[in-house]
Amino acid sequence: MDWGAGRRRCALGKGGVRPDKREGDGATPVGRFPLRRVLYRPDHGPAPASALPCTAIAPDDGWGDDPADPVAYNRPIRLPHPARHERMWRHDALYDLVIVIGHNDDPPVPGLGSAVFVHLARPDWGPTEGCVALTRADLLELLAAAAPGDTLVVRDPSGNATGAAV
Predict the structure, then answer these.
(1) Collapsing DSSP states into helix, strand and coil, what is residue 118?
(2) From CA 40, how far away is CA 149, in angstroms rounded?
(3) Distance CA 113, CA 74 (A)
(4) pTM of the predicted structure, to 2 decimals
(5) How buried is 97 (Cβ within 10 angstroms: 0-12 exposed, 13-18 middle, 19+ buried)?
(6) Residue 165 predicted with pLDDT over 80
(7) Nearest Cα residue to 68 out of 84, 54, 49
(8) Phi, psi at residue 37, to the nearest 5°?
(9) Rg of the chain, C-alpha, whole Å
(10) Residue 153 to residues 42, 58, 77, 103: CA-CA distances in angstroms?
């Protein structure tokens, strides 16, 4: 990932980087996505310094990822929820800091991918389910530099440059 004056390591989707993102493919979508807002787990740290709007998550927060549930698809939800979903309050640290990006959200189209975020990387740098993942230090640095209107750009893998740039 590139921003500012340098390049940072990031993890991408286990399904690669694809211009034709679909629900469940594990791919990180190609495109330019606005940085919408930040979610953080308040019991694991304070709100990050950022000009982006920041919201604390709670144990009953989730994110709808069931294409058969068009009202909640690719939207924040409260748990319990009857349709398939992501739990935002996780036992691992991956969602302790999350940037919600504008992927398939205006409006969401069922089946074109949901819950694509920028979040914390696994300690072993394992791939994501389709998100972009960074170290805590790099994500905090990005959040400190980010402003409303900034975008995440994921480049098409058919070119020489793959990965993400902010």
Answers:
(1) strand
(2) 20
(3) 8
(4) 0.93
(5) buried
(6) no
(7) 84
(8) -165, 175
(9) 15
(10) 28, 29, 26, 11
Q: pLDDT, tens digit, for every residue of 94-130? A: 999 999 999 999 999 999 999 999 999 999 999 999 9
Q: Is the pLDDT of residue 164 over 60?
A: no
Let me know: does 136 contact 120? Beta carbons within 8 Å. yes
Q: Which residues of 71-84 are buried (b: 16+ CB within 10 A; e: fewer)?
A: ebbbbbbeeebebb
Q: How would you write 22-74 as a 3-class SS string? A: CCCCCCEECEEEEEEEEEECHHHCCCCCCCCCEEECCCCEEEECCCCCCCCCC
- Report CA torsion sign: 7, 45, 34, 106: positive
How does residue 162 score in pLDDT terms, banded at 50, 70 and 90?
very low
**In this structure, what token pair is assigned to residue 24?**
């469940």
Structure tokens at 100: 């919600």
